[in-house]
Amino acid sequence: MRDETCFEIKARDIFLRPLTITSGEIFETLRQPMVLLFAGLLTLTLVVLDAAHLEEYMAWWQAALIWSIATTVQIGTYTALTLLWGGLGRRWPLPPVFLPANGLLAYLVSYLCTASLVQWTTGRGWDEIFGPEILLTGYGFAAIGEAIYFAFVLPQLRLRLQQKGPPARSIAVAGQRFELDTILTLRGQEHHVLVQTAERTHRLRGRLGDLISQTRESDGVLAHRSYWVASRAITRLERGDDGHDTIVTTAGERLRVARPRQGAVRAWLARHAPEVAAASERA
């Protein structure tokens, strides 16, 4: 199943070189220690340089906090603008996003927020602290940081993520996410779903169909209109004297297959779990 929450973003860097990134890569890289270290170094550089001479008007820790806020706003706005352009590009034929333009817009937002915060904190006017010279110096610093990130940091992050391997597939329900490799069964119960794992059963508000739509055919089988069984949880299929099929799970449960679904379940086993199908035939 294609992950509709992940999409490609076509972009060009400051040297007009084409670049393709995905929304998943953006979210994944933001969680990496290397990005946190990079953001920390940028903030530390701003604190040390203190181009606006904030320490003349406030304590050093207040100046450090303001520069930290400036970096956070810059990165957050930059990320949001990039994702927004990529999302709009899924609906309309937009040109590749020019990343320095994103950086400029993000910097202006960060500049306005930081200047407003300093004015509110110190009572001084913008022109006293954040004049045109600081505006240009700050943007130059932001542009250099952006160039370093895409030239050196992002390639290293991609290499690490490739070595780490793809993230575990999962399904989401009611604000919670469960890795597919941990799920044994999914069951519908009125307006709720029961997500059974090896450790416990979670009862959450949701619809069984919405969860099944997030899986692939090979992940499991709908044995009854009210429950789905993961392929990894099926040990064998038994047919009773009454001709009714029953799935035996790794947890020792015996789940009766709906009679209209028996043919489909056996066909699914033959395609995706032939060893279970063969064992069931011998039994």
What key attributes describe this structure?
single chain, alpha+beta, OB fold (Dihydrolipoamide Acetyltransferase, E2P), elongated
Question: Can you tell me about this structure?
Answer:
It is a single chain. The mean pLDDT is 87. The protein is α+β, with helices and mostly antiparallel strands and 283 residues long. Helix 2 crosses helix 3, helix 3 runs antiparallel to helix 4 and helix 4 crosses helix 6. The relative contact order is 0.08. The chain is built from nine helices and 13 strands. The chain has two domains: 157 residues, no CATH class; 113 residues, LytTr DNA-binding domain (OB fold (Dihydrolipoamide Acetyltransferase, E2P)).
Brief summary of the model shown:
This protein has 283 residues and is α+β, with helices and mostly antiparallel strands.
Chart the SSEs and their pairings.
Blueprint: E1 8-12, E2 18-22, H1 23-30, H2 33-49, H3 60-89, E3 97-98, H4 99-122, H5 126-129, H6 132-164, E4 170-173, E5 176-179, E6 183-189, E7 192-197, E8 201-205, H7 208-212, E9 220-224, E10 227-230, E11 234-239, E12 245-249, E13 254-256, H8 262-272, H9 274-282
Parallel strand pairs: 1-3
Antiparallel strand pairs: 1-2, 4-5, 6-7, 6-10, 7-8, 9-10, 11-12, 12-13
Helix pairs in contact: 2-3, 2-6, 3-4, 4-6, 8-9
